[in-house]
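Re: 2-acetamido-2-deoxy-beta-D-glucopyranose structure - here you go.
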Amino acid sequence: MPIHSVVALILFSVCIIRAEGSYLNNKRYVYGRRGPSVSHNYRDALTKSILFFEGQRSGKLPPDQRMRWRGDSGLSDGSTERVDLTGGYYDAGDNVKFGLPMAFTTTMLSWSVLEFGGRMGDDLQHARNAIRWAADYLLKATAHPGTIYVQVGDPNMDHKCWERPEDMDTPRSVYKIDAQNPGSDVASETAAALAAASMVFRSTDRSYSQLLLQTAMRVFDFADKYRGAYSDSLQSDVCPFYCSYSGYHDELLWGAAWLQRASTNASYLNYIQANGHTLGAEDNVNIFSWDDKHAGTRVLLAKAFMLRNVHSLEEYKGHADNFICSLLPGAPTSQAQYTPGGLLYTMSQSNLQYVTSTSFLLFTYAKYLSVSKEVVRCGNVAATPARIRTIAKRQ
Ligand SMILES: *[C@@H]1O[C@H](CO)[C@@H](O)[C@H](O)[C@H]1NC(C)=O
């Protein structure tokens, strides 16, 4: 299972725990009117999903590693370029460290802690550790101004050989972007991850948080100044694995949105206002994934309008509402497909990642709507926060 799919599982578990509001007594939930009722232990799912990240750790493992059967690996990652790229996460059933989904994973883990960390109990600290493991790596990948290291491990060679990372003998090739070979997608997602993580550590480790935020600002500048899709320069080294199918506009807006939230610097709000239209703020979207961030940006910016009174972002409430309406069965602009059992069906491959990331947005938007006492209007159909949560819970 790719690492960003697991993060989606965490988000979903946390949201359900929160929505059910009975986290502390660890009870089993029974719901569903159609078919046999199913009980799920969401707390256990949350714990195991976060534990999963320890199994994906690359580099020198720390003494408090809980998944003891895993050993150190990838200890000379980066050495071919004479840089330190040890650490970070392997992606899936392979030993490649893919920068784009790793950064997206970090952004989403951070968002889940920011919104729902208060309900995570003992797992909050483990979730923070999982974010820090990624953020430490992203700091290394961005430590050399003018260059971002975006991948370690030759995916075509790696995929021919199924080995555990402790024993791997496939090429640990290093891939990078720079001014001549830009990658605004991976760079801006990295900026988003660092900015979101900076908020996670703001109260627990002030200097680390500041380092993350300053790096995020520098990386976003680079992403915006040298525009291009990383798959245009890296081609078969990143495609078809994590090819930037949706281009880089969505990531630039998402990066700016996270910096707008994490910093007090007005330049990001100005940037969003000046560039939102060109970067696709109004595009029709019904997906939220490691590739396409538009829906997440809308929910994030709608929060700033609804809860922080940033009036100039009002249009994003409309865009976020449209996204919700596209998912709402029976709404005039409904576009989403559901299986006969009620599961959101987005794509034939790895569909559950879209189910879980969409469910996270539904729960998160429902939370913002509840706090600001708003509903979504889809033509003559009203979507209350309760209705939105019901759709997410059925998934
Ligand atoms: C705000 O951000 C811009 C763009 O990165 C930067 O040039 C400026 O120095 C920042 N201002 C402050 C007060 O940090």
